[in-house]
Design a protein that fits this description.
The structure is a single chain. The chain has eleven helices and ten strands. The chain has 389 residues and is of the alpha+beta class. The longest helix has 29 residues. It is globular. The protein starts with 5 loop residues before the first helix and ends in a 5-residue tail after the last helix.
Length: 389
């Protein structure tokens, strides 16, 4: 079965050409400097329609599905994974379901999201809360016509440059031990682009990769937000976010495939140029077999990702398969990028090539959107039944 229609191939080719022409040179320049994705590139992403790729056409988006979203993500991530990620961080339907918004919110927000005017960040994790999202302690209490937010958040990427942050906070102070996910709500916090209001104290988290944008720890100190900025139903925020986990995991699989492909393509070019013992190292069987194995792993995981995307677009549930795709692709990406660095030898251990960037970024894919261990837990629970451990 071929998933790639003529329209999808055209979209893929346009994204590939854009990524290699516009994104890759910036990545090669800015990543070693730990520089940030420039506003000019953000404007180009908006012009290409990538910031509104899954937003309905009636609101100015491209109105495409998960498949097209992941096609574009793979191409952008092949050049710079941070850019493949930023198209998710800036919009709804991948960050948070548009279906949860009321009509007034849709009319006010969706067109500005689609044209790149209104960009967002998402904040769920906390200093003591990662995989166990039900443990959220950041509070939002209702006071008159406002929500008042207090508490700490962690791992909020792009928080400084975003126009809004979707904050997952506990609006019900009573925690039901049997239903710990209840009582968590999604609240949209508007903020100035490039900074924070006085009630949000932000500090950057030092990272070993995923450069191009900053990641923050946030502390909310009696921040007041209009009551109408509640997204969806009060106390149901966790379930609304969970509905998008399949898309998020397919997207991470696409990012992993893209960054692994970058490693393969660079290693392939390098082994034809680099000479040892009087011939290109690509003539040695050990290197040739590495390249073959890398290529086979990438394609196998791409096809699994395609299958998951197609199932999502058919409106069918595929939480098991999405976890499998996320787990397999990210584990593959770490192996492939490591091999790509190995083929480069000493040159791969410098910032003079992109080999080390692929390796660093691939390592992160095993952690976000649910760690590899969480994916294995999901998969094994579906096969064997839920464990008490």
């Amino acid at each position: 079965m071929s998933y790639l229609t003529e329209e999808r191939r055209m979209l893929q080719e346009a994204a590939r050409e854009f990524a290699m022409r516009e994104v890759l040179p910036l990545a090669n320049k800015l990543d070693p400097e730990r520089g940030e994705i420039p506003e000019s590139l953000m404007e180009q992403l908006a012009e290409m329609g990538y910031l509104g790729i899954v937003i309905p056409e009636e609101y100015g988006g491209l109105g495409l599905g998960c498949f097209e979203y992941c096609l574009v993500t793979e191409e952008l991530s092949r050049a710079w994974m941070s850019v493949g990620s930023i198209i998710r961080s800036c919009t709804f339907n991948t960050l948070f379901p548009l279906s949860a918004l009321n009509e007034e919110q849709l009319e006010r927000i969706a067109p500005r999201l689609a044209n790149g005017e209104y960009r967002g960040a998402f904040s769920m994790s906390e200093p003591g809360v990662g995989s166990d999202a039900a443990g959220i302690s950041c509070r939002a209490r209702r006071e008159g016509n406002s929500w008042v937010l207090n508490g700490n958040k962690y791992w909020c990427t792009y928080a400084d440059q975003a126009d809004f942050i979707i904050v997952m906070a506990r609006t019900d102070p009573e925690i039901d031990p049997a239903h710990r996910h209840r009582g968590i709500s999604a609240i949209l916090v508007d903020k100035p682009r490039g900074g924070f209001p006085p009630e949000i104290h932000a500090s950057t988290i030092p990272k070993i990769g995923y450069f191009g944008w900053k990641t923050f720890e946030l502390a909310f100190d009696n921040l007041r937000v209009p009551i109408e900025n509640l997204l969806g139903k009060e106390g149901q925020g966790f379930y609304m976010v969970s509905a998008g986990l399949e898309i998020g995991r397919a997207h991470t699989a696409a990012r992993a495939v893209g960054v692994a492909r970058g490693a393969l393509e660079d290693a392939s070019a390098y082994c034809l140029e680099r000479k040892q013992f009087g011939q290109p190292i690509g003539e040695f069987q050990a290197i040739r077999f590495k390249i073959a194995h890398m290529a086979a792993e990438i394609e196998a995981n791409r096809q699994l990702m395609y299958s998951v995307c197609d199932t999502i677009d058919q409106g069918e549930r595929c939480d098991l398969e999405a976890s499998m795709a996320k787990y397999m692709a990210t584990e593959m990406a770490e192996r492939v990028t490591s091999e790509g660095l190995q083929i480069h030898g000493g040159a791969g251990y410098t910032t003079l090539t992109a080999a080390e960037r692929y390796w660093r970024d691939a390592r992160l894919t095993k952690i976000f959107e649910g760690t590899s261990e969480i994916q294995l837990r999901i998969i094994s629970d579906r096969i064997l039944g839920k464990s008490g451990q």
